[in-house]
Specification:
The protein is α/β, with parallel strands linked by helices and 422 residues long. It contains ten helices and 26 strands. The protein has a five-stranded parallel sheet with strand order 3-2-1-7-19. It is globular and about 60 Å long.
Length: 422
């Protein structure tokens, strides 16, 4: 059987190795569109900091790692999928056949249409090629402006600050990390960054990037401010790489729609990673959750089903833990709450601590936390496990610091009951 994997990121590599383990005689081919050994984008900030070299970003080490496992690495980019003929046509005209196909094409930076954004000195921070260009310009004292202060943006921010640049961040939301943190938490992260010497402009958009002769770049903001820059980083979000599926039979919403087996609307075609839209049991909807733990689990489940071993995705993890210049924050599930739900919030800005809990019925469905690192596992367990809290919900509404006690009394008791029933 021929297994074709589009995408050489973490999802593609994990799927290929899972296929090889469970189907030792099958053909496995990975198609990647970069002239690099397969690597992790999440390692790029560590490269910028100088903590690792380029080989430290590689997903697997050893020149013969893939050859030893009879995994073929091919270079190219998908242009068309013909599910009837079971072929993928690449942009260079080559046509690759398959019996089982995994779409793991990931995502790409979503660059806004701003005058001057495509000129020299402006880079996303997404590929190793981007990292090389950034390292040449982000030297100590350089004036760097970063567009975007979301989850990925804050990771890049940390790396840039570590290079000793003069850093300004522009975020169109009213707070930092607006898709992960509520108003109080996002405001606390902003204040923390400003105390660390980062200029943060929230509620602002870049309107133009101009290049007067001999003076670097002038970046015009919607607030009327004009900032000088030697380097502009675009970190304004990503979008799934699914354009080549437009005329195919594979159904897409925000990403490639999948079922609990990671199979798409077309039998024999699967999807995993940043391009996949999978069902989230906490929210009850399908979501694209572009974090590496999701990519890894989706790839494993997809590969098992590709070789005929029935496996199901238990759910999509909605969890983000972020270290922003030493301030640890976390977001789980439906952190903004739901209509008719209840919530409790406590904040100690002087101590750098904030906790927001969201409930639906007697279940914890989401939370924001800053400085509560000791309770990260507990919060995840209660949210993802959808544990009935019973009387502990009211206790948490009165005192949200009782998370550990609530977990021990409910989640562990539930596990013990399930074990006895089994």
């Amino acid at each position: 059987m021929k297994h074709l994997i589009l995408g050489a990121g973490p999802a593609g590599i994990i799927a290929a190795e899972t296929l090889r383990k469970h189907a030792p005689a099958d053909d496995v081919t990975i198609v990647g569109d970069e002239p690099e050994a397969p690597y992790s984008r999440m390692a790029i900030p560590y490269l910028l900091l100088g903590n690792i070299g380029e080989d430290g970003t590689h997903l697997r080490h050893g020149a013969d790692h893939y050859a030893q496992r009879r995994i073929t690495l091919a270079r190219g980019r998908a242009a068309k999928l013909d599910t009837g003929a079971r072929t993928v046509t690449l942009e260079d005209g080559r046509t690759l056949p398959y019996d089982r196909l995994l779409i793991a094409t990931g995502s790409s930076p979503n660059t806004p249409p701003i005058p001057g954004i495509d000129g020299p000195g402006v880079h996303p921070c997404w590929t190793l090629a981007d990292a090389r260009a950034i390292m040449k310009l982000a030297t100590p004292g350089a004036r760097v402006l970063q567009m975007g202060a979301g989850f990925i943006g804050c990771i890049i921010l940390e790396a840039l600050a570590g290079r000793g640049v003069q850093l300004a961040v522009v975020e169109m939301g009213d707070r930092m990390v607006p898709r992960m943190m509520g108003e109080t938490a996002g405001g606390m992260i902003k204040s923390w960054c400003e105390k660390k010497g980062v200029a943060v402009h929230t509620g602002a958009r870049v309107q133009a990037v101009e290049r007067p002769a001999g003076s670097g770049m002038k970046v015009k903001l919607s607030t009327g401010a004009v900032l000088d820059a030697d380097l502009v980083i675009s970190a304004t979000g990503v979008k799934p790489n699914i354009g080549f599926l437009q005329d195919s039979a594979v159904k897409c919403l925000l990403g490639v729609l999948t079922d609990e087996h990671l199979q798409t609307s077309v039998p024999g075609v699967y999807a995993a990673g940043d391009c996949a839209e999978a069902f989230d049991k906490v929210s009850g909807t399908t979501i694209v959750s572009a974090i590496q733990p999701n990519a890894a689990e989706q790839a494993r489940v997809a590969a098992l089903n590709m070789v005929g071993q029935r496996a199901e995705l238990r759910g999509v993890t909605q969890i983000n833990v972020l270290d922003t210049l030493g301030l640890i924050s976390a977001s789980f599930g439906q952190w903004a709450g739901v209509p008719g739900g209840e919530r409790v919030e406590m904040t100690d800005e002087a101590a750098g601590r904030h906790l927001s809990l969201q409930f639906q019925g007697d279940r914890l469905i989401g939370c924001n936390a800053i400085g509560w690192t000791e309770h990260v596992g507990v919060m995840r367990g209660l949210v993802e496990g959808q544990v009935p809290l019973g009387p502990w919900k009211d206790k948490l509404l009165h005192d949200p610091t009782l998370l550990m006690e609530a977990y021990l009394a409910t989640a562990q008791a539930q596990d013990q009951h399930a074990h006895l029933r089994a």
